Structure formats: structure tokens, C-alpha cells
Amino acid sequence: RISYALTASELEFALETVTSRNETHKFETFCRRLCQGSICPNLRPQSGPEGGGDSKADADSFPVADEISERFYFGDANGGSEEWAFAFSAQKTWSRKVRSDIDGLIATGRKYDRIYFVTSRAARSKDRARIENELTKKHGVPVKILDRAWIVAQIIEERREDLAHNYLSVGQVVEEYSRL
Q1: What is the pLDDT along the chain (180 residues), one digit of tens a residue?
Q2: Are strands 2-5 and 172-175 parallel, antiparallel or unpaired?
């Protein structure tokens, strides 16, 4: 069996230093895979030199037949039938970045039912809630901001260290041998 050794502080450091290590593309891939396992499995990545392509989203959901959705999908309800957009950012000024990303997504004219913004930065709960409410009210689309604390909880508490290892190259593989 393979397991992974990773502490919350190691992961937090890796998330804090994504931009200084020029690993924003790795972070976007990591976020998409994490969101697929935690929120909505039917996500497609966007293409382009900086992610997002020209649709402004780093990932978005695609429709899934009800028969498949009811049997196999987990996470938030309606993920198989609604249009959801995901934006991922490691920028230090996350509050400015979330506003510009959401404005850009809305400006495309696509009718999103929900928008998620995932940041590698720590966001105070009070600030996060205020900005979510502000953007939801401004655009008429529910906006959820998921910050470093959410990422760490999903990886460490939910035992998804493999994602951090495989996509961010943090943590160590621990091989466990057992007799049969």
C-alpha cells in the first residue's frame, strides 16, 4: 500500500510560495482535481497559455445525463445539470483578484448558475463572507470563495494527500508492506 506523509504546515508553505516558485499552472491543475473530488466531478479544464483560455474560467462544468448523475455523482447538488465556473488564483491580493475574475466571467455573457473562486491565500472569514455577498448581489450569481484553510482541510482532514503530492510535489510517499 502507498500512503503519504504531509503536514498542514508543509502544505501551507507550498501554497504560500506557489507564485515565487512559478508553479501557477501546477496549482491550477491541483485545484481542478481537488474540486473534482470535493465539489463537482464533471469539470473540464480550460486551455490557453495562462489557463482560463478566452472563456475567463479556469474550469467549468459540463452537463451530465440525469441517469448518470443520480448514480455516480457526489458533492453539491445540481452539479450535473447547472453551469458552474471555477477560477483558481495564487495571487497575493486575492480580494482584488476575485473581483476581477468574477467580473470577467460575467462579462463573457455566459449564464453561470454558480461560481467558485479558489485561492492559495489565507482569507479572513469576515472578508470572505463580505466579498461573497457583494459579488453575489452585484451579479445575481452565487459566488463561493474557498481559501487556503479550505484546501488544507480537504487535503489533510479528508486524507487527500495524494493530490498534493501528485500535483504540487509536496509531501512524501510512504510505502507500507504487509504479509498476506
Answers
A1: 788 999 999 999 999 999 999 999 999 999 999 999 999 888 988 765 554 445 689 999 887 776 665 655 555 556 567 899 999 999 999 999 999 999 999 999 999 999 999 999 999 999 999 999 999 999 999 999 999 999 999 999 999 999 999 999 999 998 776 666
A2: antiparallel
Tell me the pTM: 0.88
DSSP track, 7-58: -HHHHHHHHHTTTTTT-HHHHHHHHHHHHHHHT-S-EEE--SBTBSTTTS-S
* DSSP SS3 for 103: helix
How many residues can be counted in the chain? 180
Angle at which helices 161-168 and 24-38 cross, to 10°: 150
Q: How far apart are CA 163 and CA 168, in angstroms?
A: 8
Cβ contact 150:24 at 8 Å: no
Cα 64–chain centre separation: 20
Inter-CA distances, 140 with 77, 89, 93, 133, 135, Å? 19, 22, 24, 10, 8
The residue type found at 49 is P
Element housing 117 (H / E): strand 114-119
